[in-house]
Structure formats: C-alpha cells, structure tokens
Amino acid sequence: MKALTINQFGGPEELRIQEVALPSPGPGEVLVRIHAAGINPVDYKLRNGSMKLISGRKFPRILGGDIAGVVEQTPKQSFYRPGDKVFGMLSIKGGGYAEFVAVKEKQLCPVPENLNMKQAAAVPLASLTALQALKKQGGIRPGDRILINGSSGGVGSFAVQIAKAEGAYVTGVCSARNMEFVKSLGADHVIDYNAEDFTKGKQLYNKVFDAVAKSSFSRCRKILKKGGVYISTIPNNGVWFYQVFNFLRSKKAGFIMVRPSGEDLLIIADYIKKELLYPHIYKVFPLHDGLQAHELIETERVRGKIVLSVIS
Ligand SMILES: NC(=O)c1ccc[n+]([C@@H]2O[C@H](COP(=O)([O-])OP(=O)(O)OC[C@H]3O[C@@H](n4cnc5c(N)ncnc54)[C@H](OP(=O)(O)O)[C@@H]3O)[C@@H](O)[C@H]2O)c1
To answer: For burial by CB atoms within 10 Å, which of 136, 170, 192, 227 has the most?
Structure first.
C-alpha cells in the first residue's frame, strides 16, 4: 500500500510517499481502508523528534493519529461488518497517513450520517481532547462560566461547542481575525488576545481551558472562582508542580493527556447528530502534499482543522 512515511526525524521534507506492507490486524483489530486522515500538531512534534522519548526511534514510520474510512476486515466477533464507515483516534504509534490501518475495534466509532469522510477525519483527537478535558477532568456543569484560550484552533473550536452543548457560558480567546468564527461556534463572549490580557480581567470563571497552552496556572488562578479548575494541553509553565499541591488549594491545576476511546467518540457523534457540534475544515491536502500540510500546521495559525485526503 501507499503511505506517507518518515525515515528519520526532521523537517516536513522528510515526509515521502513510499510503498509499504499492508498492516495485518492483531487480535481485536479491524482493518480499515482509509479515506481521509486528520492532522494535529502532535504529528509535526513526532516528525521532528521532539517527542522521541515517548514515540521511540523506529523507522520507517507512518504518522497520523486520526482516520476515517471503511471497514475492510473484522475480527471473528465484531460489532462492525465490511463496508461500515468508521472514524477513530489511533495510538501514539500512528499509521493514519496511509491507505490502510489496523486499529483496535474499541478505538472506533460509526461515522454519523451528517458527516462526510473528510469531516469525520477532522474530529477524533481534537474533540476527544476537549471532551476529556472539560467533561471528564473538568467536570463541566450547566451554568458554569468557562474561558477557552485558543478557541479558534482544533481543540479550542471543539471545546467551545462542547461547553455550549453542556450549558456553560463560554468566553473564547483568539486573535481579531478569528473573532467572528469563534462567535459562530456559539461563544457568548470573545476576547482578542492582542487587545486585552484575559488574565487581568474582572470576570471570574469556574474553568479555564488553555487549549493552546500559551498561558499558565500562576497567571490564570487570579481569574478562577473558588473551587475553579485550570486545565492545559501541555505540561509546561510548572503545571506538574501546581498539580501535586492541588490538595492544599481550592483552585486546581491540571493537564490533559488525550486517550483514544470509541466510547467517548459515541458521545461526540451524538453531539454531531444533534447538530450541536461540527468540524470546521480550513484546508484539505492530497496525501502526496503532506509537506505543505505540515508546514501549515507548524505555523500555529490554522482555524479549525486540516485534513489529508487519501481517496478523493
Ligand atoms: N495533551 C494532549 O493530549 C493534547 C491533545 C491535543 C492537542 N494538544 C496540544 O494542544 C495544542 C493545541 O492543539 P490544536 O490542535 O488546537 O492546535 P492548532 O489547531 O494548531 O491551534 C491553532 C490555533 O491556535 C491559535 N493561537 C495561536 N497562538 C495563540 C495564542 N497566543 N493565544 C490564543 N490562541 C492562539 C491560532 O489562532 P490565531 O491565529 O488567532 O492566533 C489558531 O487558530 C498543541 O500544542 C497540541 O500539540 C495536546
């Protein structure tokens, strides 16, 4: 099969189309013919080697943690049948930038009827991060006041919609060019980070979700209500340290590490079916233009999501 691979760590130019062996499914795994693969910032961090302690150094390596496609082969006992449309988040091993992948059945979910394959591929990792941060870790409740920093990005755009779906009052933080977009996602209030420092405002929040990890707990604690929670997507700015001492404080600090979960994707699929959530696609690239897609994701300027089309 064709796959977009890297043979060593490095820049986007390391991405090459290569002929590789078809993956053979292990126990409990489904073979999926991939139609589209979502792109996330973690992909370029895996490519350039900044996550090699976690990812290991085995090459050739196929990147890509998000897929949507059609079931080709199932285990003996399976919920799925060949021909079913599925989407899912893969493990850190990746494998999404390819024509086929073998993936644990429990990481998959049926594609909602109101999404096409490219839209479905844009959903898993970023929406699961937002869901697991806000619902599971943050314990979001109706009426909560929530601030989402980086509300125009992949994670942030899903976080705004999930927080609204759960009945929160949402403040989004983004740059001026993305304010209308963030309002269109349902945010009640939007702050331009170049015009206003949100950590110095008078408004207090039950939760601050730093989806782009550009602020810190020490700055955000001032705008948290008593019992409030700060969650970041990257363990920087001392968040580990603050987390250890949560038991001493009424305002808590935390960090989310997203996990693949077909069960959680069912919750996401339900929001999508009810039209409470949709993926905004900024740009679609053919698989052989992975280099350009990686150059774009590294700019940190993507609005919503970008996707690789494997079958056009
Ligand atoms: N720990 C985990 O499990 C996990 C899971 C998912 C993601 N992540 C990490 O979370 C981060 C965000 O992921 P993502 O997929 O949302 O990234 P993304 O889609 O690439 O984020 C791009 C967005 O970030 C906004 N942005 C850039 N600088 C900003 C700033 N200073 N303040 C506010 N917004 C800013 C940009 O808007 P403007 O152009 O308007 O600035 C753009 O819309 C990445 O570092 C990623 O690796 C971690």
So the answer is: 170
Number of structural domains (the chain) is: 2
pTM of the model: 0.98
CB distance 175 to ligand 1 below 6 Å: yes
93 and 140 housed in the same domain: no
Residue 150 CB less than 6 A away from ligand 1: yes
In a domain, 262, yes or no: no
Query: Looking at ligand 1, which atom is closest to the CA of residue 126?
Result: 6
For residue 286, the CA-to-ligand 1 centroid distance in Å is 23
Structure tokens at 209: 């979700």
> What's the domain range around 155?
126-255
Mean pLDDT by 10 residues, the chain (312 residues): 98 97 97 98 98 93 98 97 98 97 98 98 98 95 98 98 98 98 98 98 97 96 97 90 90 96 98 98 98 98 98 86
Ligand 1: does its nearest atom lie under 6 Å from the Cβ of 156?
yes
DSSP string, 50-79: TTHHHH---SSEE--SEEEEEEEE--SS-S
